[in-house]
Hints:
Blueprint: H1 2-20, H2 25-29, E1 52-56, E2 60-65, E3 73-79, E4 93-97, E5 102-104, H3 109-115, E6 122-125, H4 134-141, E7 146-147, H5 153-160, E8 165-168, E9 181-183, H6 192-196, H7 199-203, H8 209-232, E10 240-247, E11 258-261, H9 265-274, E12 277-278, E13 285-286, H10 289-294, E14 301-304, H11 313-320, H12 327-330, E15 334-336, E16 340-341, H13 352-355, H14 357-368, E17 382-383, E18 389-391, H15 412-417, E19 434-436
Parallel strand pairs: 3-4, 5-6, 5-8, 6-7, 8-9, 10-12, 10-14, 14-15, 16-18
Antiparallel strand pairs: 1-2, 2-3, 10-11, 11-13, 15-17, 18-19
Helix pairs in contact: 8-14, 9-14
Amino acid sequence: MTASIKLLSLLLLALVATSANAQSPLEDCVKTFDANKDCFTAKSTNDAAKFFKVDYKNYYKVVSVTPAFGAPSSYALVIRGAPKDALPTNVNATFEIPVKSVGAFDTTSVPYLELLGKRAAIAAASNPEYVSSACFQKLVAAGTIKKVDEKNQASATSTVAPLDAIFSGIGATPGLADGKWVTQSASSDPGAFNRAEWLEYFAQWFGLEGDAQKTTTEILARYTAAKEAAKKAAVASPLKVAWVSYSAPASFNGNKASWSISAAAYKKDLVTDAGATMVTPSVSTFSDVAEFRKQLTEVDVVINESFKFNETLSGFAQAFGVDDNFKFMKNKQVYGLDKRVNPSFLLDWFESALVFPNVVLLDLMSIVNPNAVKGVTRTYLRNLDSDKITVVTADQCQGDVAAPLSVQGPAVQQISSGNVGSGDGAARTSAAPATVAAAPLAVAAAAAAFFLA
């Protein structure tokens, strides 16, 4: 019996080793190398995303990023095992694909990797405490995902040494892991669906373009179903929506307060597709609060983007100098972005909202066009007067921690029925998040440096 158990154990170990070392279809394609054989049977089309493109060759590809801000970058991705002598040299870095171990140096990269089923490939993160994903938190708690201490060069170098690539939306850390950085600009790509389609960008490093396209197609289908429902329920006089923010006096702004109204393209997409009208004055930033208030005279709904956790309606009124003479105040139609946060009270808005515009659209529809689809439980937008915050924690990660993140939000059939019931479908775990009514923590404005709203 003992010998049999020992033999079974050896067989299991052999199977695990074989699985771990199994080659991908891409690697199989270059085993017997033929420069004229096209190994990329699935190719990215990125119809919506504006800031990246892919130029496919037979056994390598060049991925280029041309962001709205900052320098452009390009990467040569060659199938592992293929020769490298003919690769372009005028690129920022060269990678062998599929990569096996990666770093996530901003929160926005995490849900893209999770959707591709590559959460288990994340071995390091610069600020894991900023991430909302329950299963990511669980891997951090287990020590599987290690925190990179960028203040300690020796420690940071050791932590990132095993990584094949480091994804970052905030740029590379000078002197750390040169040649491994991958720039992504998902959060600044205009248009609601543009940002979701960056899934096909991340897929390049894993050879998963086909899977990414299926996922983005499903996200778009759910978004389109919601948009069509909103159109059918359109009213003669759509509500007017303003996205506003407040900057308190500080050293970086000369100790002068300012108030802003956003005209970002993706927000306009979402508001319009929800069946409302977005307020976009010719001037976006005001140093005179009286001039700012004039822009809000006819506004029905306000979305407050200011970095303050668990803001109250009265706190908002004080910061923006408004009262019940404004429709949105009288009707208590002021919303924040902090409906869903992590244990550090940082916002999932800067994480999963990028890849799931379908869920954000339903959030907005529940506010400006509630009869279009009934039964929506908002995920990201919190009514400052009546909604409680939900906190996502590691213990809410159930089942296989390495399982791919599924597309969130109600399915097309549910949306088309006009009633999605009690489930918003947007929780990234199978357990209900904890709720908090209040917390004495303001999200530091410095955190904004890590994100593009």
